[in-house]
Amino acid sequence: MIKHLFFNALLALLPFIGFSQTFGIVIHGGAGNGISPEYLSEERSKAYESALDRAIRFGYSLLEDGMDAVSVVEAVIVELENNSLFNAGFGAVANANNEVFHDASIMRGSDLNAGAVANVFGPKNPIRAALAVMDQSKHVMLTDRGAEVFAASQNLIMLTEADKETYIQAAPKPKLSKKGTVGCVVLDMYGNLAAGTSTGGTSKKLPGRVGDSPIIGAGTWADNRSCAVSATGDGEYFIRSGAAQYVGSSMRMLSLDIQTSLESSIAEVAELGGEGGLIGIDKDGNIGWDFNTKGMFRAAHASYMSKPIVEMYGK
Question: Domain containing 164 — which CATH number?
């Protein structure tokens, strides 16, 4: 009883000592027309639902323990990259040459710093390589061999040549794949926002192709003045519309709420001919998502919610 009263008293004091009582997390595992009951078996659906539930509870527990937003984004995306259900890390799809390459990015809302890697095979967890670019270099993006050499210099776990065949064998056949890019957006109890995105790109893509996931402002955005956003879908259209930053700009310049801003950005993507989805959380902890496909793997949990939301089909 005394412990409970002390905890409640501490929560009441948080706003006055630089903390925010409201915190939350939203994740996605891709959007697409294949994410529907007609394409996913009951067993497969349960597997995705379980993976999303596990990841969102894991991330929320880290927030409850006081972990900062960037570290939570990293930890949750690592969890998703290690799960072969998703098109990121170990579950990444293969390109037209039957090779596997990864893209990832992360952004910190407090100072708009960001890091990204593109077209890499080497770092076991690409999101960690992106974080290293942000924290340990003066650059925002590194690509190809340069990114791989840099990641190795940061003492990250690196894949070997022998691992390449394992990853290629694990890559799904295009017609059977219902996988998607993964992303995470967070508001921590200190009032800081962060966002991250990781992917294997599109199946059978041309070698060298880079989508929106590692592009700051297209696939990932975080700004403490507005929101944190992560994208999934037809990357070329998200790049052309600057989809992720579009959400933050709409909030700051037009005073739109997070949900309306997400919907406006997806409408812009759709007008160009693209499909996909966005997740977001704003500086006050309001969450949202929107997509123009049959489904999107997504989940959310915030300090004002009694339990996490986990959804896959419809809106």
Answer: 3.60.20.30
